[in-house]
Write a structure and sequence with these properties.
mainly beta, Jelly Rolls, eight-stranded antiparallel sheet, two-stranded antiparallel sheet, 2 helices, globular
């Protein structure tokens, strides 16, 4: 039996500590909602703010919802400009962080359970 679950950002997501500076980050699709293969984070970054550095054992994909920001390859130090409509693909074990002002939505697939345990404990 298949199940469809509609998750509303403001009503169903939970705040998680991924932002350095101004902004907000939320876990939207997560284990608490029954997700086992896909995670979605919604990361809103003010200008000059960044996400914490992230790295996952599996690939990750993010969509730039709005704004013009940057994604930093923290392994090499290379910075890429990104804007609304861009898709960012990250290979397994790639270190990265985002810089605002921009809104990013996405995450690792499958779920990075170590990350969730750190964020939710």
């Amino acid at each position: 039996m298949s199940t469809i679950r509609v998750v509303e950002l403001e009503k169903d997501s939970i705040d998680v500590d991924l932002v350095i500076g101004g902004g907000r980050s939320r876990a939207v699709s997560r284990p608490g909602f029954g997700a086992s293969e896909r995670s979605v984070f919604y990361i809103e970054l003010d200008g000059g703010s960044s996400s914490k550095e992230l790295k996952h054992p599996h690939e990750a994909v993010y969509y730039v919802v709005s704004g013009k920001g940057q994604v930093v390859d923290t392994d090499s130090g290379i910075t890429y400009d990104v804007a609304e409509g861009a898709v960012i693909y990250l290979t397994p074990n790639q270190g990265y962080k985002f810089i605002g002002p921009a809104v990013f939505a996405g995450g690792p697939c499958p779920l990075d359970m170590d990350l969730y345990q750190r964020l939710l404990n």
